[in-house]
């Protein structure tokens, strides 16, 4: 539609018997298209300016809808609203065949609360397995790398048997390379990528301190590469599992006893849609070139 100013200019052009004025119209027109010649206007000048109302319409995407929680975990959430999931490793078992690691997972507003409390929030030196608090686990969101902490209790409970991956042979990793970690909303499996020993102080190693527990979200590929390079440098095994930027990870952390204030860590990648994790069985090999902390040498 022509503007009022253009109309007045054209009317003045008629009055002074000048040639037909040309002007561009349509803001969506390609700048390479030829100019359009507008017809001479013969109506009398406009003395009043009509009200022009432009209605701006915007469209917004509806917010994502959180999936329904899994019914099988409803009773745990009712018992403790900090419940966010369940971890189970089938390949490491009691003599009766039951898995050693088969526990609920909680998440609180800090990483200290469940160090000395059980699932019912009662005092217990054994603690509870809990997820790092920095990125809340919901039906729509979780960290790119979720870290779970658990005590290495002498009675074998919680994450004591994570230390089985420190074995000098590959029998444990090749039968227990799959970790089941469900959230309240989703069942999922993870395949182990790396197992390593690390200290928590600078003077325990001659390499810069690797704070694996701070590698939560990989906002850039550089962040991801830093994480992968460090876990593979220290890896007890040559893993057959391929990883790429955009994958999701699960990290299990527990106290080790190789030296004071040491930690043993297991990192696993989430099984992708359509992937068959059984293809990795039997393909883990010892890594004789792994980096060990200075305090462990």
Please provide a brief summary of the model.
12% of the residues lie in helices and 22% in strands. It is of the alpha+beta class. The N and C termini lie far apart (82 Å).
Which features characterize this protein?
single chain; about 300 residues; alpha+beta; Sortase, Chain: A; 2 domains; 8-stranded mixed sheet; two-stranded antiparallel ribbon; globular; disordered N terminus
Description:
- With 297 residues, this protein is α+β, with helices and mostly antiparallel strands.
- It folds into two domains: 1-59, no CATH class; 76-296, Sortase, Chain: A, CATH 2.40.260.10.
- It is 12% helix and 22% strand.
- The chain has four helices and ten strands; from the N terminus they run ααββββαββαββββ.
- The chain has helices at residues 4-15, 74-79, 171-175, 221-233; strands spanning 83-93, 99-106, 130-131, 145-149, 178-183, 189-199, 237-238, 249-256, 262-270, 285-286.
- The strands form two sheets. An eight-stranded mixed β-sheet has the order 2-1-5-6-9-8-4-3. A two-stranded antiparallel sheet has the order 7-10.
- β1 (83-93) and β2 (99-106) form a beta hairpin.
- The longest helix has 13 residues, at 221-233.
- It is globular, with a radius of gyration of 32 Å.
- The N and C termini lie far apart (82 Å).
- Mean pLDDT is 87; it is low at 1-5 and 7-47.
Summarize the SSE layout with pairings:
Elements: H1 4-15, H2 74-79, E1 83-93, E2 99-106, E3 130-131, E4 145-149, H3 171-175, E5 178-183, E6 189-199, H4 221-233, E7 237-238, E8 249-256, E9 262-270, E10 285-286
Parallel strand pairs: 4-8
Antiparallel strand pairs: 1-2, 1-5, 3-4, 5-6, 6-9, 7-10, 8-9
């Amino acid at each position: 539609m022509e503007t009022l100013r253009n109309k007045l200019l054209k009317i003045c052009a008629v009055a002074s018997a000048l040639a037909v004025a040309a002007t561009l119209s349509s803001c969506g027109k390609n700048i390479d298209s030829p100019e359009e010649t507008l017809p001479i206007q013969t109506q009398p000048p406009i003395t009043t300016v009509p009200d022009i109302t432009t209605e701006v319409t915007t469209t917004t995407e509806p917010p994502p809808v959180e999936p329904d929680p899994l019914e099988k975990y409803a009773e745990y959430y009712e018992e403790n609203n900090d419940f966010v999931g369940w971890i189970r490793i089938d390949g490491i078992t009691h003599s009766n065949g039951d898995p050693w690691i088969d526990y609920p997972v909680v998440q609180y507003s800090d990483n200290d609360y469940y160090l000395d409390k059980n699932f019912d929030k009662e005092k217990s030196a054994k603690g509870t397995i809990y997820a790092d608090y920095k990125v809340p686990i919901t039906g729509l969101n979780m960290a790119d790398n979720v870290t779970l902490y658990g005590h290495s209790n002498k009675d074998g409970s919680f994450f004591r048997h994570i230390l089985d991956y420190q074995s000098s042979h590959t029998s444990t990793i090749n039968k227990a390379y799959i970790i089941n970690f469900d959230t309240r909303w989703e069942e999922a499996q993870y395949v182990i990528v790396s197992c390593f020993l690390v200290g928590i102080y600078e003077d325990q190693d001659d390499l810069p301190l690797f704070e694996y527990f701070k590698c939560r979200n990989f906002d850039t590929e550089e962040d991801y590469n830093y994480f992968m390079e460090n876990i593979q440098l220290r890896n007890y095994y040559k893993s057959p599992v391929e990883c790429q930027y955009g994958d999701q990870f699960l990290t299990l952390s527990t106290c080790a006893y190789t030296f004071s204030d040491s930690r043993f860590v297991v990192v696993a990648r989430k099984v992708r849609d359509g992937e068959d994790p059984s293809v990795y069985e039997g393909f883990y090999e010892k890594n004789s070139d792994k980096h060990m902390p200075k305090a462990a040498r």
